[in-house]
Structures are given as structure tokens and as C-alpha cells.
Amino acid sequence: MSAIQTRTEKRIRATAERLLAAGADAMAFSERFFGSQGLLRQLWSTETERREVMRSDLYRWLHERLSRLQRTEVEAFEKEVEALSGRLTITVPKSLHASLKREASREGVSLSELIRLKLTLSYRVSVAR
Fold first, then answer.
1. Is residue 89 included in any domain, yes or no?
2. 49 and 15 housed in the same domain
3. Residue 65: inside a domain, yes or no?
4. pLDDT in tens, the chain (129 residues)
5. What's the pTM value of the predicted model, to 2 decimals?
6. CA-to-CA separations, 81 to 53, 55, 67, 77, 118, in angstroms, rounded
7. Statement to judge: residues 48 and 68 lie in one domain
8. Does 70 reside within a domain?
9. Into how many domains does the chain fold?
10. C-alpha distances in Å from residue 44, one per residue of 2, 8, 16, 56, 76
11. Domain range enclosing 64
12. Helices of type H across 22-56
């Protein structure tokens, strides 16, 4: 391992520690280090070097930190979901209310079911991005 690579690895680890201390989320952390333009990419120029990096202590350390962030986020989301009732009350313009009611009638579902379906579809599309 060259001195330049060692310095680069130290810089990458220091960057990770700063991001973690600043409260980075799992997605930002992953993109910063593991993404196609991530900092780990600086450590290889050949496929053999890439495989070596993936077996390195630095890679394992970063991957462990990413896994911790992901677990923490999942646990927080699960707690948030559990605390909610599932009921949501909103106020919409009368014209939108009438339009949704007509659409629900045409589809043979309740207004509540139509809105739930529309929100679920929209949510799935945004999560998939």
C-alpha cells in the first residue's frame, strides 16, 4: 500500500467520522462513500484494486457504520409508525372533494378507499426513486 493511498484512507475515515458526528443519514453516507462518485472510488483504478478495497479494514469499517445508520433509521421509523393512529383529517376545496367523491363512485369504492389507494400509489412511486 502506498503512502498516498494510506493518506487517502485516513482522509476518508476522517470525513466519515465528521459526517457521523454531524448526524448524516444512511442515504447521504452511502452515496458519499459507496456511490459511483463516492470517496472509496479514489482508492482503485483496476478491478483487482477494487476487490482489495472491498476486503480492506476501511471498507468493513464504513460498511459497519452504514449498517448501524440504517438500523437506527428503521427503528426510529417503526417507533414513529407505532405511535400514530392511522387517522388523518384534511381540509380540501369543495370542488376537489366533489371530484374525488364522483371518482370513488365511478370506481365503486368508498371515498376513503380511493384516497388511500391514491396516496399509496404516490408513496410507492416516491420511495422507488
1. no
2. yes
3. yes
4. 566 668 999 999 999 999 999 999 999 999 999 999 999 999 999 999 999 999 999 999 999 999 999 999 999 999 999 999 999 899 999 999 999 999 999 999 999 999 999 999 877 766 666
5. 0.70
6. 38, 37, 21, 6, 20
7. yes
8. yes
9. 2
10. 12, 11, 19, 12, 36
11. 3-83
12. 26-34, 47-54
